[in-house]
Design goal:
The complex is a heterodimer of chains A (151) and B (397).
Chain A: H1 3-15, E1 18-20, E2 29-31, E3 54-55, H2 65-77, E4 87-91, H3 99-119, E5 127-131, E6 145-150
Chain B: H1 12-15, E1 19-20, E2 43-51, H2 55-67, E3 72-74, E4 81-88, E5 91-98, E6 103-109, H3 114-130, E7 140-144, E8 151-155, E9 163-164, E10 172-177, E11 183-188, E12 195-200, E13 206-210, E14 216-221, E15 227-232, E16 239-244, E17 249-252, E18 261-265, E19 271-277, E20 282-288, E21 297-301, E22 306-313, E23 319-326, E24 329-336, E25 342-346, E26 350-355, E27 361-366, E28 369-374, E29 379-384, E30 390-395
Parallel strand pairs in B: 1-21, 2-3, 2-4
Antiparallel strand pairs in B: 4-5, 5-6, 7-8, 7-30, 8-9, 10-11, 11-12, 12-13, 14-15, 15-16, 16-17, 18-19, 19-20, 20-21, 22-23, 23-24, 24-25, 26-27, 27-28, 28-29
The chains are: A alpha+beta (151), B mainly beta (397).
Chain lengths: 151, 397
């Protein structure tokens, strides 16, 4: 058996795995990402956003009240438990940030969106994230934002 | 199809869970550690006769190579080392002797051109005389969007010998050269998601190092060349990991809900520095790695500057260069390590510093142009301009 095959179950386990972390008022539970098998990047083909982009300002990664309302409405429009739909959450950061920070910041914002959607009842394994920093821009991306694509 | 070619055995199991420490590691409190090295007077070298058909050109070329090296001084008197040789058809044979006439080394250089042979000889001479690697044969890796997408390139410190290393769909960024210069680790978007790959520069093959869900980015070679520090987010948040290239195992060395990025190694291989934004903008943190099993100790490292990113230790580990925000724009700052004074090297949008192998120079970019900055003479020169927008330079150690 090859090493990847051996490790496959481990990653599948991660999808349902949660990890408590000591924090200062931030979310206390992390939901590990499942395998991104079957997810398509918007860099490979044009994808239509599932809802309006969430625009961030400055260096922040916390969700604003407007973000939360938009995400609540988005989750409410889906059938209970997401109805089997899968979504890719993609973050991007502006050119003014150094590349390395921009990559992590865009991923951190995408993860914040994912956590909120999980709290709204969407299954963790149906939500995948990636941060592009400012390395590449899918068609229609506005920068400094997070976009949710239905897969 | 399984998306991970090389997996990571997850964990904090290897090092245990990290914790925040307030004190310096014991091994950092060495006598004299943190004090900048006293400036030494340059070593004196005498360039003697070079016989043969291209001997005269070889001697003049070697004098030119050595004239730009601050750590050596070409002199006829009181020379600590003398080099003589022979050159025919661009090939060079050199003999180096010390002040007592004892041979230090005798070596032949048979690269296709005289210029390349003289660069190699100059580097060997500098190493013998000063104990520091030379610059002539070093390389700088960088990212440029010249081809329409961001790709990784190499050039020498004069901005010559430019090679495009990657041609990945959707780009390749964030290069890190291995300590022996034989490989480059980088982030690739060729499958549409960021994965960390390794390119062998001599053989030309590439392989995926980490392809986990979320991001895989910011790889930095450890001084031993066998480990990479990088950012992965498959646990549900971006974290700094150290992965072993031989076993494909990884351990989490940060503990944050912030935005960890740009890990970089202390030359001891026992300490990492990285930036992390825990809500007040990016700051620098140190992660002390245990020698075997044990806890990772995390320590904030105060710089007095805001928005600190892209830290890199000097080759002797006594200084740190990083990007900070000064006057509303990014700037290059150098600060003594573990403590001491900090000075702004370049303002006005300069970012992403990387040290030369001898610690005398920094390369960085400013508005897409690649510069080399002489820290002693406090002057800089353009290495490469009009080559697209250049970012993320890394100098080969």
């Amino acid at each position: 058996m090859t090493r990847p095959a051996l490790l496959l179950p481990l990653l599948h386990c991660l999808g349902g795995c949660t990890s408590p972390l000591p924090t200062g008022g931030e979310p206390t539970v992390l939901h590990a990402l499942s395998s991104r098998d079957g997810f398509t990047s918007p860099l490979l083909q044009p994808l239509r956003p599932a809802c309006s982009a969430l625009v961030f300002s400055g260096t922040g990664y916390a969700l604003s009240a407007a973000h939360e309302k938009l995400l609540r409405d988005f989750a409410a429009a889906l059938p209970e438990g997401g109805g089997g739909a899968r979504h890719l959450i993609v973050g991007q950061a502006p050119l003014e940030f150094p590349g390395s920070h921009a990559r992590s910041l865009s991923e951190r914002r995408a993860q914040a969106v994912r956590r909120f959607l999980i709290d709204q009842g969407l299954p963790a394994e149906s939500l995948q994230t990636t941060g592009l920093g400012h390395d590449a821009a899918p068609a229609g991306f506005t920068g400094n934002s997070v976009v949710i694509y239905r897969q | 199809m399984f998306p991970l070619r090389h997996l990571l055995l997850l964990t904090a199991l290897l090092f245990g869970m990290p914790r925040v420490a307030a004190a310096w590691p014991d091994w950092l409190r060495l006598p004299g550690f943190g004090r900048p090295a006293a400036e030494r007077s340059p070593q004196r070298l005498q360039v003697g006769d070079f016989t043969g058909g291209t001997g005269r050109s070889a001697r003049l070329g070697l004098l030119k190579e050595l004239s730009s090296v601050p750590d050596v001084q070409v002199s006829e008197e009181a020379a600590a080392f003398t080099v003589t040789g022979h050159s025919v058809g661009g090939r060079v044979t050199a003999r180096v002797a010390d002040a007592l006439g004892e041979p230090v080394f005798e070596r032949s250089y048979a690269a296709p051109g005289l210029e390349e042979n003289l660069r190699l000889l100059a580097d060997d001479l500098i190493l013998a005389a000063t104990g520091k690697p030379g610059l002539a044969t070093s390389r700088i890796a960088f990212v440029s969007d010249r081809s329409g997408s961001r790709q990784i390139y190499l050039c020498d410190p004069q901005g010559r010998d430019i090679q495009q290393l990657t041609r990945h769909p959707h780009g390749a960024v964030c290069p890190s050269l291995s300590p022996d210069g034989s490989a480059v680790a980088f982030t690739s978007y060729r499958q549409g998601f960021p994965v960390v790959m390794l390119l062998d520069l001599s053989q030309g093959w590439e392989r995926v190092v980490t392809d986990t869900p979320g991001i895989n980015a910011g790889a930095a070679f450890a001084p031993d060349g066998h480990r990479l520090a990088l950012v992965m987010s498959f646990l549900g948040n971006p974290e700094i990991f150290v992965t072993d290239l031989g076993t494909n195992t990884a351990a989490c060395v940060s503990e944050t809900l912030g935005v960890p990025a740009s890990p970089s190694w202390h030359p001891s291989g026992r300490l990492l520095v990285f930036s992390d934004d825990r809500g007040r903008g990016p700051r620098l943190y140190l992660a002390e790695l245990p020698e075997a099993e044990g806890e990772v100790r995390l320590t904030p490292w105060s710089t007095r500057y805001g928005f600190c990113t892209d830290p890199e230790f000097s080759p002797d580990g006594r200084q740190m260069a990083f990007t900070a925000r000064v006057g509303g724009e990014s700037a290059i700052v150098v600060k003594n390590f573990p403590s001491g004074r900090a000075r702004v090297i370049q303002r006005g949008g300069a970012r992403h510093p990387s040290w030369s192998p001898n610690g005398r120079y920094l390369c960085y970019t400013q508005h897409g142009v690649l510069y080399i900055h002489d820290l002693l003479r406090r002057e800089r020169r353009i290495v490469l301009a009009n080559h697209g927008t250049i970012t993320e330079p890394r100098w080969m150690r």
